[in-house]
Write a structure and sequence with these properties.
Elements (H helix, E strand, L loop, with lengths): L1 E2 L19 H15 L1 H5 L8 E5 L6 H11 L4 E5 H5 L5 H15 L3 E6 L25 H15 L6 E7 L17 E4 L5 H12 L8 H10 L6 H17 L7 H17 L6
Parallel strand pairs: 2-5, 2-6, 3-4, 4-5
Antiparallel strand pairs: 1-3
The structure holds adenosine-5'-triphosphate (ATP).
């Protein structure tokens, strides 16, 4: 899926201001905006720009949102793929797809490739990689061939070429070490589940976007304290459910009643998923 911010319609809109909390992660990932905007400022000084960043963390906590914000803020097209797409194809097509992906990105550079769930293709290879080259795994599985191709593509890229690969996973422990070497995904950004303060910020972000009877700040603190273990996606869901509830009950404005109703509804879901409460 390609989103081109230069396109007249359907362009990207996610900015860093749309990502609540995640203050440290934002600082770390923001560097990539500058690499994409002013690569020669670095390369003329002899610096080699990072080609990849790995976002580590549980689902629904803003990894995709952050990657999109990098693309928007650097006016670069954003090509999003999922690791599972490469292994669902038959007969060596995963590697060919990977080649095409990089070809496409280079033709649109500066450009961001976002690979969600990279663990689907980036698991430790059976044969091990040995010294440091690529392709030493020796396996013939779709997964290994795709991973080898990804390594070949990243190694073949000139760091000033303006293609940055951002990948995400919540299973860093299963990743092949070759992926984490210098010149590949050597920048790691941890995206933890939101703290109480971050949940408050996320609630405020979304409460500001609905018709609410009071200032978002009136509700956000209490809601944040009632939602340990919630992801940003869960929080967005609570606010949206509250607005939907108000509409279905033909109310003109969202009040504490709808927020509590939505909270109970979402709580019933995540509790079944046996969340770890923080
Ligand atoms: P996955 O691993 O499932 O792809 P993710 O970490 O990439 O998860 P996102 O797709 O970035 O999660 O987040 C899902 C949705 O949750 C976002 O579209 C947004 O509505 C909301 N959300 C999550 N985290 C935040 C945040 N920090 N600030 C604002 N909204 C957030």
């Amino acid at each position: 899926k390609i989103v081109d911010p230069h396109a007249k319609s359907g362009g990207l809109k996610t900015r860093f201001s749309d990502v609540a909390g995640l203050h440290e992660a934002k600082v770390e990932i923001r560097e990539f905006v500058d690499y994409l905007k002013r690569p020669t400022a670095y390369t003329t000084l002899g610096a080699k720009l990072p080609k990849g960043a790995l976002l580590l963390g549980p689902p629904g906590c803003g990894k995709t949102l952050l990657a999109k914000a990098v693309a928007t803020e650097s006016s670069a097209p954003f090509i999003a793929v999922n690791g599972t797409e490469f292994i669902e194809v038959i007969g060596g097509l995963g590697a060919a797809r990977m080649r095409d992906l990089f070809k496409e990105a280079k033709s649109r550079s500066p450009c961001i490739i976002y690979i969600d769930e990279i663990d689907a293709i980036g698991r430790k290879r059976s044969g091990g990689e040995g010294g440091g080259g690529v392709g030493g795994g020796g396996g013939s599985g779709e997964e290994e061939q795709t991973l080898n191709q990804l390594l070949v593509e990243m190694d073949g890229m000139d760091s000033a070429q303006g293609v940055i690969v951002i990948a995400s996973t919540n299973r860093a422990d299963v990743l092949d070490k070759a992926l984490l070497r210098r010149g590949r995904f050597d920048r790691h950004v941890t995206i933890d589940p939101p703290t109480a303060l971050e949940r408050k910020e996320i609630f405020e972000l979304y409460l500001r976007q609905i018709k609410l009877d009071k200032n978002p700040e009136v509700y956000s603190q209490r809601l944040a304290l009632m939602t340990p273990g919630f992801s940003g996606a869960d929080i967005h869901n609570v606010v949206n459910e509250a607005a939907i509830r108000a509409a279905t009950t033909e109310k003109k404005i969202v009040t504490v009643d709808e927020l509590d109703w939505a909270l109970q509804r979402i709580l019933a879901g995540p509790e079944k998923r046996s969340r770890t409460l923080s």
